[in-house]
Specification:
heterotrimer, A: 206 residues, mainly alpha, 8 helices, C: 268 residues, alpha+beta, 5-stranded mixed sheet, two-stranded antiparallel sheet, 31% helix, elongated, binds flavin-adenine dinucleotide, binds protoporphyrin IX containing FE, binds iron/sulfur cluster, binds FE2/S2 (inorganic) cluster
């Protein structure tokens, strides 16, 4: 029998769920919010982006509060997705399907984030409306962004539901059910905000 | 369906002249639906078999809990009612359950002394396997009590027995064990090789049918005698069993065949014991001898194995502390105590 | 004697005719001759009798061990005991769902009835599996109340009736393994002990005397294969024949381990 006091797996796992919400999830919200500025025109977006650029110690914050937790959550998430079984063919119940979608959208998000960062943050170009506009003018890129955005917002929203169970916040069956509705509404709202911003970027800056 | 349904207020009835007939309440006004299980069993038998008043003409009567509030039922009987519903498809909270008595306990068993030791020195027995506490009858909920008590007696006595031994297991020659092991191995090999035309499960089915029909609730000597003849016939057929499974991995057919022989022996001992006891006592009920006969049969039946079938002897029951009195559930307990 | 539902006490010789023909029950059963042998399917047709369940079909097969085409086969190996869904030993995968063979009524099943052993557990032979890992899990979470000793401890503390009622629901778990079988996170890449064990830990943590070992149980749940392996697919609660609120138990235990872990860390 394994030593009962070896809690490392437990802690790593708890850290994973926490990272998904606190730094990474919050960043996602912030990111969606900034991008949605694009719906008010190029100027509004550029000024929001500039505000972020002006945060002191930006690189430090980005690295420790976004990249590290994101990489941790992402890589560990891939491992979790790999160790899970998938049996919705035999048991096609709602939560089981959501369980699979959570893992599937995680993997999509992983690929999406890498490509997204590579073409934006690490492209060497300044984060301006014009740069994004150039990218999404390519229909393939636009659809890729769309799928990524929907996947990421789904993953986050359904992740909130899962988080509430993992931390013992929603215990009873009714509480969990109500939370299902709440998080699905959250998903629709966030996905709407993200897609709306994407569409806004397709318009030329005028 | 568990007896606890009666305990919680379930009422047993059937239709008579188109109206519900609460026969237990009528026959035993003092105890009503709470009469002991042997009495209830016989009453149900009488109503179904003798009077032909079973529900839908079948051997079944109603056990009705539908008058008890649903919440109370769910708290007290939820689990057993759910199982009934799964099997039958009716909700017993609304529709009376259809029931018939069934076997679920073996009274009698291995002979043990007051220390719970069998007649094989060093072999102790406690619980349903042994005979001590529930001779002709077992009252509801008393089995677990006797298991616990028997265990508390057997445990310390086993330790005492071991401490008193001059030689222990390891000091006995290996050949002793090998010899017995070989015997069992040979027996098993013999079973694996059996290739006759009889099926062990079929023999078992017939045995069960005969025993249930003739040596359970109502017993007639002529039928008991026929049953013993049948058992002897089954024992002959046993020799012609074909074991269809030759595997050495979890071979259930071979295991079953092995056990079946013991079942046949056991059934024969029960049957012979029942035949010789010409009285009615507890669950042992012979319509031809309806009274309890303490003079001849306030005794324990002891069966010993012999090659020609069981040998029956009797041992007196110790009644020095509580003198026996008549069982009468039609009147209050005090009325039977003069 | 006790009273049984009459369905079970029916005569075995009763036959059911359909247009003057004997009606049959069709079954497809996965066979496996030993722990390391290859699995294969075999089809059977057994005479139908009313009220039949999967076990009575299997009993019919062993009494007349021939396949659908009348060719002799070895009898199917399976386990049974209580025949009333309280022992849990007859759990198998019937038409794709893990459930008890004894309460799987033929009349309510689509035919041919597809029967397989549970895949989560090592198959010993045919439909017989080794559920040993479940009992190991129960040992690990100390799913009992230690009261044995050399002297009488006196009456234990009482439990409020309201709590007793829900605790009773949890106590109805009979280690049947259906929840373990349905859980996607119980597989050979994880060491998850399974939903039932988390629920049992909750049951004994709630008991006024069992509470004394609360910390041990929570430590076990935080150990290897513990509660963190649960990914909330919630199949367990769907398949549990006793309707045990497993997902509530899991969330409640998540809460308990959270407090326990934080408390332990703050006290260091
Ligand atoms: C449906 C039902 C309801 C009941 N309700 C009540 C009740 O409400 N109250 C009450 O007091 N009593 C009740 N009883 C009776 C009571 O439950 C039993 O009499 C009691 O459990 C018997 O316990 P035991 O330990 O003597 O035997 P068992 O529990 O039968 O244990 C015998 C053990 O021996 C094992 N064994 C058998 N053969 C071998 C072998 N060759 N090698 C190794 N091991 C072997 C078996 O696997 C088993 O574990 C009920 C019985 C039934 C069937
Ligand atoms: C936008 C970035 C991401 C966010 C905001 C995010 C957020 C979350 C949240 C909130 C959870 C719920 C935690 C819980 O179950 O308690 C979660 C779970 C999960 N995430 Fe992510 N995640 C992101 C990226 C990823 C990536 C890249 C992967 C890699 C595949 C991933 C894989 C997973 C997995 C497998 C789970 C389920 C964990 C479990 O149920 O045990 N996530 N995520
Ligand atoms: S929790 Fe339910 S499904 Fe799981 S083992 Fe117990 S009774 Fe079976
Ligand atoms: S035989 Fe006990 S649950 Fe089916």
């Amino acid at each position: 029998m394994v030593q009962a006091d070896s809690h490392s797996q437990f802690l790593l796992r708890r850290l994973h769920t926490l990272a998904g919400v606190v730094p990474v999830g919050l960043f996602l919200l912030e990111h969606l919010f900034t991008n949605s500025m694009a719906t008010n025109g190029a100027a509004a977006f550029n000024s929001a982006a500039a505000t972020i650029e002006s945060i002191p110690f930006l690189h430090f914050i980005e690295f420790f509060f976004i990249f590290v937790p994101l990489i941790y959550h992402g890589v560990y998430g891939l491992y979790v997705a790999f160790t899970s079984g998938y049996n919705s063919g035999q048991f096609p119940w709602w939560r089981n399907v959501m369980f699979i979608l959570q893992r599937l959208t995680g993997i999509i998000t992983f690929v999406f984030i890498i490509f997204h960062l590579w073409t934006t943050r690490f492209s060497g170009k300044a984060p301006t409306f014009e740069m994004v506009h150039q990218l999404v003018s390519n229909p393939a890129y636009f659809w890729f962004m769309l799928i990524g955005t929907v996947a990421a917002t789904f993953h986050f929203s359904n992740g909130i539901w899962s988080f509430c169970v993992h931390w013992g916040i929603t215990v009873g069956q009714r509480a969990q059910r109500v939370m299902s509705y709440v998080t699905m509404i959250l998903f629709i709202v966030l996905a709407g905000v993200g897609v709306d911003a994407l569409i806004a970027f397709t318009h030329t800056a005028s | 369906m568990s007896e606890s349904a009666r305990g919680e207020g379930g009422r047993v009835w059937t239709y008579k002249d188109g109206k519900p007939w609460y026969f237990l309440e009528e026959m035993y006004p003092e105890y009503g639906n709470l009469v002991p299980r042997d009495v209830a069993t016989r009453a149900i038998f009488h109503v179904c078999v003798d009077l032909g008043l079973g529900v839908d003409g079948k051997n079944q009567v109603y056990l009705d809990v539908s008058h008890i509030p649903t919440e109370e039922l769910n708290v007290k009987l939820g689990a057993i009612l759910e199982i009934y519903e799964k099997f039958v498809g009716d909700d017993p909270r609304k529709i009376p359950m259809r029931i018939f008595p069934a076997m679920h306990y073996s009274m009698g068993g291995l002979w043990v002394d007051i220390d719970q030791q069998t007649n094989i020195p060093g072999l102790f027995a406690a619980g349903e396997v042994e005979y001590q506490y529930h001779g002709a009858n077992r009252l509801g909920a008393n089995s677990l009590l006797s298991c616990i008590y028997g265990g508390m007696v057997a445990g310390p006595n086993a330790v005492k027995y071991i401490r008193g031994l001059r030689r222990s297991v390891d000091s006995l020659p290996d050949s002793l064990y090998d010899q017995h092991r070989r015997k069992e191995d040979e027996n098993f090999e013999r079973i694996l090789k059996m290739d006759g035309s009889e099926n062990p499960y079929e023999i078992h089915r017939e045995l069960g049918q005969w025993m249930t029909d003739n040596v359970t609730v109502v017993r007639y000597n002529d039928r008991i005698q026929k049953t013993e003849e049948k058992i002897v016939e089954l024992m002959e057929r046993y020799q012609r069993i074909g074991v269809s499974d030759k595997s050495r991995i979890e071979n259930q057919t071979a295991q079953f065949t092995r056990h079946l022989w013991n079942m046949l022996q056991m059934a024969r001992a029960i049957t012979r014991g029942a035949y010789l006891r010409n009285e009615s006592r507890g669950t042992h009920f012979k319509p031809d001898f309806p009274e309890r006969d303490d003079e001849h049969f306030l005794k324990t039946t002891k069966a010993t194995w012999t090659p020609d079938g069981p040998k029956i002897e009797y041992e007196d029951v110790d009644v020095s502390l509580i003198p026996p009195r008549t069982r009468n559930y039609a009147v209050a307990k005090e009325a039977t105590e003069q | 004697m006790t009273e049984v539902a009459t369905q079970q006490g029916r005569s075995t010789t009763e036959q059911v005719l359909e247009n003057g023909q004997q009606k049959f029950v069709h079954l497809r059963i996965q066979r496996q001759d030993g722990p390391d042998a290859q699995a294969y399917m075999q089809e059977f047709a057994v005479p139908y009798t009313p009220g039949m369940n999967v076990i009575s079909c299997l009993m019919e097969i062993r009494t007349n061990p021939v396949d659908k085409n009348g060719r002799p086969v070895t009898p199917v190996v399976w386990e049974m005991n209580c025949l009333e869904e309280v022992c849990g030993i007859c759990t198998m995968v019937i038409n794709g769902k893990p459930r008890q063979a004894c309460t799987s009524l033929v009349d309510k099943l689509e035919q041919p009835i597809d029967i397989k052993p549970m895949r989560t557990f090592p198959v010993i032979r045919d439909l017989m599996v080794d559920r040993g890992r479940m009992f190991d899990a129960l040992k690990r979470v100390k799913a009992w109340i230690p009261i044995d000793g050399t002297y009488n401890l006196g009456p234990g503390p009482r439990m409020p009736e309201k709590d007793r009622q829900w605790a009773y629901e949890l106590s109805r778990c009979f280690t049947c393994g259906a929840c373990v079988e349905a859980c996607p996170n119980v597989n050979d890449r994880t060491s998850f002990i399974g939903p039932f064990a988390l629920s049992q830990a909750r049951l004994f943590n709630e008991h006024p005397t069992g509470m004394m070992n609360r910390a041990d149980r929570l430590d076990a749940l935080m150990g290897e294969g513990g509660i963190h392996e649960c990914g909330n697919a919630q199949n367990c609660v769907e398949v549990c024949p006793k309707g045990i609120p497993l997902t509530t138990s899991i969330a409640a235990m998540n809460r308990q381990v959270t407090y326990h872990a934080m408390g332990a860390w703050l006290k260091k």
